[in-house]
Amino acid sequence: MSDHAATLAAALIRNFNEIPLTHRFRDPNYDTRFARLARDTAAQKLGATIDVLEPGKRGCPYHLHHAQEEMFIVVEGEGTLRVAGEMLPLKAGDVVFIPAGPEYPHQIINTSDAQLKYLSISTLEAPEICEYPDSGKYMAEGSLDKSDPFEVIERKGPSLDYWDGEP
């Protein structure tokens, strides 16, 4: 492979079977291994993650996005998509499309007795507000400078006055 071809491959190609997975565990509901695939690639507006959920576990809390759209591709196993108050079965080969907005809070749950592996693909819209209906939290994130990201996670509650803390 030429130097140019190697540079292109490094910027454009990732193999989810070859990237080390990070383990995230929080008893009793969450146990996932994942790898962010788009990091350090040429991608500007797309994010991608490979997720592996253990039997009976979830990867992230039930949530909704105000700006980002997501797509999930089930690579291996079976599970359940919790979405808009419903439980929908998922199996290998299924492709799930989740638009932004309060109509589609969602979460993937491995309701089987084997591993569930799926790709998560999202637009990287910023700024982003993400809400967590089960816990009453929200997350605000975004930055014009990737070296200095902005992120805050809070519970809904009394707001500050517009002029609070201003000279």
From TrEMBL:
Pfam families per record: Cupin_2
- What CDD domains has UniProt attached to this entry? cupin_SPO2919-like
Q: Boundaries of each Cupin type-2 domain copy?
A: 52-121
Give the keywords, sorted.
Metal-binding
| Record-linked InterPro entries | Cupin_2 (IPR013096), GPI/OXD (IPR051610), RmlC-like_jellyroll (IPR014710), RmlC_Cupin_sf (IPR011051)
Taking the record's annotation, the residue ranges forming a coiled coil are none
GO MF annotation: an example = metal ion binding
Would you tell me the protein name for this molecule? Cupin domain-containing protein
Q: Which organism is it from?
A: Vasconcelosia minhoensis LEGE 07310
